[in-house]
Write a structure and sequence with these properties.
Blueprint: H1 5-25, H2 30-41, H3 51-54, H4 57-73, H5 78-109, H6 115-125, H7 130-139, H8 145-175, H9 182-213, H10 220-240, H11 245-259, H12 263-271, H13 274-287, H14 291-296, H15 298-322, H16 327-336, H17 342-355, H18 357-388
Helix pairs in contact: 1-2, 1-13, 2-13, 2-18, 4-10, 4-11, 4-13, 4-17, 5-6, 5-8, 5-15, 6-8, 7-8, 7-18, 8-9, 8-11, 8-17, 9-10, 9-11, 10-11, 10-12, 15-16, 15-18, 16-18, 17-18
């Protein structure tokens, strides 16, 4: 292990650049390349990252998760929700809830995991990787009703997933302190409710202050500094008050998109700087994988992959039936939502930080391993779904 964090950062950026170039030629998602690079550089394999850099994973996970949640808040524009319509909204909700339910119940009753741990695994399972899905539709020039519905679903699917995860983690973190008595359970539930509404309140208040002061912003450089300042204010306030970074930032983004006519400029400004942050984040996520824990929990990992897949397929079918979608959407929409990446990893890192100990490590390790599988196999399943729906040629 190098003791120089700057040298470690140089290794990450240089190898990250070339690994992304190589994997693009192999048609492997960039996020997968970054995670696999992190595994390769980790203490478990080549041990090329400094202790100082590895210790920053919680810091970067909070920042990157805040950026992701804030960006997904844009999906809650009332105009967007009206445009995508009832069908997309219905399918996206069931496609997020069903894997949450299946994974939670199976992990609790069949795999005998503590309920609050099963709940967190289920919440992570609800997330999808919109970038992978969009990449497939663009690469194969997919066109038609199925494609339009799919793109609408992935646009807001992760927003629902973040809400589900925020609620689940708030309950789980309270449940950890439960003393087994009814009074203790009620106290913890009350604490979870306070955390949820407090988190949402932080996001709304920060957005309203943001709007009041945004007229001082005159240039693109000022815009980036301004939005980062308020985003860090939301993240820092949530951490200080032991509230949810996820819910605070998604509420910030959702409030901003519906109350500020120039909000798109602030959302776009973050996209100019997010690439290097994502690179560091995903490499550190990969470096957090514990091979010994994965070996001991391989059945849990395989169960998670199978149950999440079943949940997405069942959720897509159920939502499609409820909104009376076409037969092809009912059959194949869930399969098209199999890819999973950034949001799941970000949530797992937050869960590790919140829960800690062996359980935190297990949640993160299983999520990292399953993400590699879903990002390698998922795009092919999405392509297969589009072929079966008749919207791309074989």
């Amino acid at each position: 292990m190098t003791s120089n964090p700057i040298l470690s950062l140089a290794i990450v950026f240089i190898l990250g650049f070339f690994s992304s170039r190589i994997t693009k030629k192999l048609k492997i998602p960039t996020i997968t390349a970054y995670v696999m690079l992190g595994i390769l550089l980790s203490p478990e394999v080549l041990n090329l990252l400094s202790e100082e850099m590895l210790s920053t994973s919680d810091f970067f996970s909070n920042i990157v998760l805040g950026i992701i949640a804030f960006s997904l808040g844009e999906s809650f524009s009332l105009d967007t929700l009206r445009r995508v319509g009832r069908a997309v909204t219905g399918i996206s909700i069931t496609a997020a809830i069903m894997p949450w339910f299946l994974v939670t119940v199976a992990f609790w009753l069949f795999f005998k995991q503590p309920f609050y741990i099963a709940l967190v695994f289920g919440a992570i399972a609800s997330a999808t990787a919109p970038a992978a899905v969009v990449m497939v539709t663009q690469e194969y020039k997919s066109r038609g009703d199925f494609t339009d519905t799919l793109l609408g679903v992935v646009a807001i699917d992760d927003a629902w997933a973040l809400i589900i995860f925020g609620l689940s983690l708030a309950f789980a973190s309270s449940f950890i302190h439960d003393n087994g008595h009814l009074a203790g359970i009620l106290k913890d539930l009350f604490r979870a409710i306070i955390e949820i509404f407090g988190s949402l309140a932080i996001g709304v208040v920060v957005a309203l202050i943001f709007n009041k002061l945004s007229h001082f912003v005159k240039t693109a450089k000022e815009r980036l500094i301004f939005v980062l300042g308020f985003l860090f204010l939301a993240i820092g306030s949530a951490i200080l008050l032991h509230f949810s970074v996820l819910l605070s930032c998604i509420a910030f983004g959702a409030t901003l998109i519906n109350t500020n006519k120039l909000s798109f400029e602030f959302f776009n400004s973050l996209r100019d700087i997010d690439s290097p942050l994502y690179l560091i984040f995903f490499v550190l996520a990969g470096a957090s994988l514990k091979i010994n824990i994965l070996a001991a929990a391989i059945m849990l990992a395989l169960g998670y992959i199978a149950l999440r897949t079943a949940g997405k397929i069942a959720g897509g079918a159920l939502g499609s039936k409820i909104v009376d979608a076409s037969p092809s959407i009912r059959k194949y929409m869930g399969m098209a939502l199999i890819p999973q990446a950034g949001v799941a990893l970000a949530c797992a890192l937050i869960a590790k930080q919140t829960i800690g100990g062996h359980w935190g490590e297990k949640i993160l390790t299983i999520t990292i391993a399953s993400t590699v599988v879903f990002e390698l196999v998922g795009p092919w399943i999405t392509k297969f779904s589009l072929i079966k729906a008749g919207e791309i040629k074989e």
